[in-house]
Amino acid sequence: MNLIQSLQNPSAYPHSVSAIELIETHISWVLLTGQFVYKIKKPVQFDFLDFSTLEKRRFYCEEELRLNRRFAPELYLQVVPITGTLGNAKINGDGEVMEYAVKMRQFSADQLLSEMANQGRLDVEIIDQLADLIADFHYHANVDISDSYYGTVIETHRWFSGNFVHIRPYIQDDKFLQQLTQLENWGEQELLKNTPLMQQRKQQGFIRECHGDLHLGNITLFENRVTPFDGIDFNPALRWIDVMSDIAFIVMDLQYRNLGSFSYRFLNRYLSRNGDYSGLSLLRYYLVYRALVRTKVCVLRWQQHQNPQDLQDAKIYANLAENFTTPEPPALLITHGYSGSGKSTYSTKLAENDGIIHLRSDVERQRLFAESKSAVNLYSTEHTRQTYQKLADFAETILAAGFSVVCDATFLKIEQRDLFQKLANKMQVKFLILDFQVAEEELNRRIFQRQQLGNDVSEATLDVLQQQLKNAQPLTSDELNKVIRVHSTEV
To answer: pLDDT value at position 450?
Structure first.
């Protein structure tokens, strides 16, 4: 009898066991007992991990506990020894230690976000909670600005190109092989184009100790709280990465599941929280990388089990990777309307449904003057000018990264709109104005209600609205040619 067989006996556990289920991966055995889960690392060695000795397995069990307690302390309980004999193993027993296991609290598989997505149970509240959680986690994560190899251009692309080494030997389809070659060539070109940015981001502290494997199958809803788990513990190079690589797995996974609106809701909320719009220039590279990782996993699974569905899934992921390399031409959209006209509500939905980055003046105004003692009046002429300039700077960065952007602000002054018209001309992109038509009485009602509820980032008051009505400059005849009307019934 081997160790894993012995551990399928309820007497091996120091607690009651309702049933024992074994889940096996290429690097672990996972034993579900009803109340608790025990994860045991296999004595294996690959090019990306080394569990070959008992001491190494103990070390990585401790690392798994440390790393995953950052976001799931209620799930990850302790590292326990396995003692006894192969025929009579004991969890946390006395005597010589044969092996170690990570003890976790068991949760229902139905609460995995991957299962919730499959069953159509994901909703905007979960996506918003996930975005806020990851943004906060990245903000507090350990930072590497040293001269280590973590997050360097060479190290990052080593993992990107390494996917092809594991995929190609098992593919016989010429079309599939040609697609892989095109993706590899695209990756090389992206690397050359973005090398300065990658180097800059390491210096600026965007290489952090991340999760590393942040897809929906590694996120659960535990006690009504979004909870990531099973982060990378076995290879630090796979978790000390650019934060944009970490979130790319979530964005890619949602798009793979045909949940594009959720992927852009997540992305926009994450970016709104931390303002990392410069990272968008690397996002498609990381989206392709994450899709290739899943392609590799499917191909290796197919090689082991010869299940045709695995190979079909691999092709779907490869097609998704290819789609990421051929985006639509970007466009620049701005809103035009008074406070309370529904600009943010409409822009949020538009951004989600059409795959657009959403910039909101209320958010950027507060970010810009968060630590400024002089910002008593956020809506002063000078603060407003600086806010629009910041919006334009971010919009240029987003457009240069190949993403469309909607700039959500009142744009009541000709000079404000002209700033963005000139930007569109400079970037050679389509320019549109979303013009919001809402009666003054309704504007007053909405702003009053918003202030009473206190649940919106906007700090515009009824006095601010009156100033807007008094000083607004109407759209010019040339601007009217670029207008899309949005009426109050639509927002």
So the answer is: 72
Amino acid occupying residue 41: K
- The CA-CA-CA angle for residues 81, 57, 67, to 5°, reads 95
pLDDT at 287 > cutoff 80:
yes
Mean pLDDT of 309-321: 96
CA distance 110 to 76: 19
* Nearest-10 crossing angle of helices 243-256, 280-305: 60
Q: Which residues of 287-313 are buried (b: 16+ CB within 10 A; e: fewer)?
A: bbbbbbbbbbbbbbbbeeeeeeebbeb
> Virtual CA dihedral for 203, 205, 211, 213, nearest 10 degrees?
-40
| CA 322/CA 300 separation, integer angstroms | 20
Compute the distance between CA of residue 23 and CA of residue 4 in angstroms, rounded to an integer: 11
Rounded Cα distance between 387 and 381, Å, is 10
Residue type, 242: D
380 Ramachandran zone, left/alpha/beta (phi>0; psi -120 to 50): beta
Give the three-class secondary structure for 418.
Answer: helix
Say if strands 45-46 and 49-50 run parallel, antiparallel, or are unpaired.
antiparallel
- Domains annotated for the chain, with CATH where assigned, are 3-106 (3.30.200), 113-324 (3.90.1200.10), 331-490 (3.40.50.300)
Integer Cα distance of 218 and 229 in angstroms: 6
Q: Rounded to whole angstroms, how far apart are CA atoms 392 and 371?
A: 21
* Distance from chain centroid for Cα 324: 15
Question: Across the strands, what pairs with 406?
Answer: 333, 358
- CB 141 within 8 Å of CB 147: no
Amino acid at residue number 401: A
Tokens at residue 160, please? 């990107």
Give the model confidence (pLDDT) of 257-271 as tens digits. 999 999 999 999 999
Residues 6 or more apart whose CB falls under 8 angstroms from that of 63 comprise: 233, 234
Beta carbons of 163 and 298 less than 8 angstroms apart: no
Q: 483 has which bridge partners?
A: 433
Can you tell me the distance from the alpha carbon of 367 to that of 346, in angstroms, rounded to the nearest whole number? 22
Closest CA to 409 of 424, 419, 398: 419
- What tens digit of pLDDT does each residue of 348-397 get? 999 999 999 999 998 999 898 876 645 457 778 888 999 999 999 999 99
The helix (H) or strand (E) run that includes residue 39 is strand 36-41
